[in-house]
Write a structure and sequence with these properties.
- It is a single chain.
- The chain has about 550 residues and is α/β, with parallel strands linked by helices.
- The protein folds into 3 domains: about 180 residues, Alpha-D-Glucose-1,6-Bisphosphate, Chain A, domain 3 (3-Layer(aba) Sandwich), CATH 3.40.120; about 220 residues, Alpha-D-Glucose-1,6-Bisphosphate, Chain A, domain 3 (3-Layer(aba) Sandwich); about 130 residues, TATA-Binding Protein (2-Layer Sandwich), CATH 3.30.310.
- It contains 18 helices and 27 strands.
- It has a 7-stranded mixed sheet with strand order 2-6-5-3-4-9-8, sandwiched between helices.
- Helix 2 crosses helix 3, helix 2 packs across helix 5 and helix 10 packs parallel to helix 11.
- The protein is globular, with a radius of gyration of 23 Å.
- The structure holds alpha-D-glucose-1-phosphate-6-vanadate and cobalt (II) ion.
- Alpha-D-glucose-1-phosphate-6-vanadate binds next to loops.
Length: about 550
């Protein structure tokens, strides 16, 4: 058993995006490509000799091969112990939970989250630090800097580890422990929520639920928690087998891609509650019978009802939301007399606020909600939070959301995505906006008067780090907003995201259709950004 030092040359395209490095599978399969990135992670860390690393992925194509490489490299680089999920499976929130529980030095997650998988799909890798959260920008910047100059990596010349058997083996001086993927995570959930009450509620005969794992990582977690621990009927979890290509689907829990679930919840004799998760289990979509809860509203409702749930009975220290997320949570924070922080897109920006005890709940409009229980967004946690609230309040999802709007007003909200557009043209569109926002304040567009317009810049209140160019915000005097940004998770061309929001205080107008209610702003976004011209599209690919 020898440590091999392999000569390599840098790849120029290993800059991590919103959530780690994501590329098409064939890119990751190029000789040395994954190895270079893994060694660059290790090279930019200090003090991990003899420490614990957590490794797991969402089960997509190339997961097992990548894990074998990482185990051999972790051993060759001197980690003392590696905890790896059985079958190579660990959801993103489970990795966060395990890093924290076992005081690991950090973790590596293999996932491209909501991007499709398979031989022609996407793959991804991201590093999480000892707090269990995604590496902050100073760490990802250091990793990227290293990828540009790397000339060798270290790997053990040994045979593969059996990932399917729960057992401990040694690779050189490193202990490799294959652990059950679900146990630690399920125990954490049980500590936060009233499982007995939820169980009575979902087995009492008056409530039916349907959980869709989209053939991605949450299948085993959802079956263990809902069907086995909480006794929901067998079949409650649909699409529950993780598949390497997610059954050909797009494991993104929104109204477009979670169509099986949408059909059930909007069909005849629909159940009372439905939920879906994404590829790596950190996102959630919540549906009631014939009713969709926007992720921004979901965060606001969870915040307003948090004290009904055992783990949050003491109340919230604060709320944090990403900039494009609607301002619905801000209204709850104002009423509770707590702070609401506005951060750039990406969970890594919540880490410092959570560690400092300034925020308890966090959320993003992209179907991500979470809390200080881990340092990642957490799909099944959000589902359990909703079920706990429903079990206490014994009202429908729709009634709870409508009552919420009656108290706080409704932030009517949606996002339009233009996927796979030409990168140069998308950059031109953003460049034009950037040039225009400086002089936009005070201008009027029909009934809308611009209050402020900028390219969002964030100064972290804990460590003072500054993140610039995080998206164009145009805020109007009546509280409406339009936000434009380019995705940082795609692998082909560019994706333009346009976020639209309008506030409606009058309950008599809360039932309006979202697209109709936002029609003026949609028109205005087109006028300001010339979307059709620069994207070559006359409508969005995803409306959510
Ligand atoms: C998207 C979402 C963002 C989320 C990120 C990672 O990023 O907008 O809110 O944090 O995906 O989520 P972007 O840059 O494409 O807009 V996950 O669940 O895909 O890791
Ligand atoms: Co995800």
């Amino acid at each position: 058993m020898t440590v091999q030092t392999v000569s390599t040359r840098p790849f120029t395209d290993q800059k991590p995006g919103t959530s780690g490095l994501r590329k098409q599978v064939p890119t990751f399969q190029k000789p040395h490509y994954l190895q270079n990135f893994v060694q660059s992670i290790f090279d930019s860390l200090e003090g991990y000799q003899g420490q614990t690393l957590v490794v797991g992925g969402d089960g997509r194509y190339y997961n097992r091969e990548a894990i074998q490489i990482i185990l051999k490299m972790a051993a060759a680089n001197g980690f003392g112990r590696v905890l790896v999920g059985q079958g190579g499976i660990l959801s993103t929130p489970a990795v966060s939970c395990i890093i924290r529980k076992y005081q690991a030095f950090g973790g590596i997650i293999l996932s491209a989250s909501h991007n499709p998988g398979g031989p022609d799909g996407d793959f991804g890798i991201k590093y999480n630090t000892g707090n269990g959260g995604p590496a902050p920008e100073n760490v990802t910047d250091a990793i990227f800097a290293r990828t540009k100059v790397i000339d060798q990596y270290r790997i053990l010349d040994v045979s593969d580890v059996d990932l399917d058997r729960i057992a401990t083996t040694n690779l050189g001086n490193t202990r490799i422990e294959v652990i059950d993927a679900v146990t630690d995570y399920a125990a954490l959930m049980e500590a936060l929520f009233d499982f007995d009450l939820i169980q009575q509620f979902i087995t009492g005969g008056n409530f039916r639920l349907c959980i869709d794992s989209l053939h991605a990582v949450t299948g085993p977690y959802a079956k263990a928690i809902f069907e086995r621990r909480l006794n929901a009927p067998a079949g409650t979890v649909q699409n529950g087998e993780p598949l390497e290509d997610f059954g050909g689907g797009h494991p993104d829990p929104n109204l477009v891609y979670a169509k099986d679930l949408v059909k059930v919840l909007f069909g005849d004799n629909a159940p009372d509650f439905g939920a879906a998760s994404d590829g790596d289990g950190d996102r959630n979509m919540i549906l009631g019978r014939h009713f969709f809860v926007t992720p921004s509203d979901s965060l606001a409702v969870l915040a307003a009802n948090a004290t009904l749930v055992p783990g949050y009975r003491e109340g919230l220290a604060g709320i944090a939301r990403s900039m494009p997320t609607s301002q619905a949570p801000d209204r709850v924070a104002a009423k509770l007399g707590i702070d609401c922080y506005e951060t750039p897109t990406g969970w890594k920006f919540f880490g410092n606020l959570l560690d400092a005890g300034k925020a308890t709940l966090c959320g993003e409009e992209s179907f991500g909600t979470g809390s200080n229980h881990v340092r990642e967004k957490d799909g099944l946690w959000a589902v359990l939070f909703w079920l706990n609230i429903l079990a206490v309040r014994k009202q429908s999802v729709e009634a709870i959301v409508k009552e919420h709007w009656a108290i706080y007003g409704r932030n009517i909200y949606c996002r339009h995505d233009y996927e796979g557009v030409d990168s140069d043209r998308a950059n031109t569109l953003m460049g034009n906006l950037r040039a225009a926002v400086g002089t936009m304040a005070g201008k009027s567009f029909g009934q809308y008067q611009v209050d402020y317009a900028d390219d969002f810049s964030y100064t972290d209140p804990i460590d003072g780090s500054v993140s610039q160019k995080q998206g164009i915000r145009i805020g109007f005097k009546d509280g409406s907003r339009i936000v434009f940004r380019l995705s940082g998770t795609g692998t082909q061309g560019a994706t333009l995201r346009v976020y639209l929001e309008r506030y409606e205080a009058d309950p008599a107008k809360h039932d309006q259709d979202t697209q109709v209610a936002l029609a003026d702003l949609i028109q205005l976004a087109e006028e300001i950004a010339q979307i059709k011209e620069w994207t070559g599209r006359d409508r969005p690919t995803v409306i959510t």
